Amino acid sequence: MAEHEPVLTAMNMSVTYEVNPPVRAVKGVDLVLNRGEILGLAGESGCGKTTLAYALNRLLKPPALLTSGSVTFHDKGGADIDVTKLQKNDLREFRWEKCSMVFQGAMNSLNPVISIRAQLFDVLKTHRPGMSKKAMTETAQGLLKLVGVDPERLTAFAHELSGGMRQRVMIAMALALNPQMMIMDEPTTALDVVVQRGILREIMRLREQLNFAVIFITHDLPLLLEISDRIAIMRSGEIVELNTSKNVFENPQHEYTKQLLSSFPSLLGDEGAFVRDTGQGAAGEGAEDVGADESDAALHTDRAER
Ligand SMILES: Nc1ncnc2c1ncn2[C@@H]1O[C@H](COP(=O)(O)OP(=O)(O)O)[C@@H](O)[C@H]1O
Ligand SMILES: [Mg+2]
């Protein structure tokens, strides 16, 4: 697992939205992601998490401007890639093959008029030219299996899938080219708790199996405490604390971290001390409820969302 060998090093990242007045959304952030680790990025809505993610993956568009910073990707072959200097094709390759992203609200961004299969094929056709149709079908089926979706659903359209299923498909797409790292921006926020659990379990299992690193973004600190190796706490564009999950939980250093922890009553025991449900966390409780139950629960969510 985490071998303390970096896969991505970002230094002094600053992003301003050039509006009037300008918004300094990210201010001098340093961040190192180790191979195979899950790094949680926590902080209130509007603190700059998505902006930072976009800066790491070169997705910023005007009025956002990267005013300072460097991003280095340490490729598994040993080469260091200066992400800020990548041009067109190399940048496209970087985004899918090395560092893929699951966007906030991604499950609603599947193309409604083409099948899941066609969308997976698009990725494979672009990045694996020469792959036979048979191989693409097998790969697409394998990817769905990987994320716990019945491969029969390949021919489905987005509206035929529950929210949880759609989000799993988005994760399958992000995994399609076997990236060394993924950035997941609130990947389960819109889902109800049961579905969320199922997906988190899947992510943790896949991480074990495929050994990619994850930057997992959410405002849900209790969730991060369960799944992350380390957690970065972000506030007003800055990372105010970065430590192992255990230390963030047991020995928070920054006043804001303490405040954030105490804002989740579920973490407080009778005595007012923090209590972490260590059990086996996301991998433990209800481990058998993946599958049918989940799609049921997801359908309920969908209904509630409408
Ligand atoms: N297009 C934009 N123009 C101006 N300000 C923006 C834009 N997008 C985001 N911001 C501002 O940047 C800050 C960080 O936003 P964001 O990165 O989306 O935060 P988070 O993901 O933590 O909720 C917020 O103050 C937000 O209002
Ligand atoms: Mg966001």
UniProtKB/TrEMBL annotation:
Residues 277-306 are annotated as: Disordered. Residues 8-261 form the ABC transporter domain. Keywords: ATP-binding, Cell inner membrane, Cell membrane, Membrane, Nucleotide-binding, Translocase, Transport. Residues 286-296 have a biased composition (Acidic residues). One of its GO terms (molecular function) is ATP binding. It is found in: Cell membrane. SMART domains: AAA (SM00382). Its main location: membrane. InterPro entries: AAA+_ATPase, ABC_Ni/Peptide_Import, ABC_transporter-like_ATP-bd, ABC_transporter-like_CS, Oligopep_ABC_C, P-loop_NTPase. Residues 297-306 have a biased composition (Basic and acidic residues). Belongs to the ABC transporter superfamily. This is ABC transporter ATP-binding protein. It comes from Agromyces archimandritae.
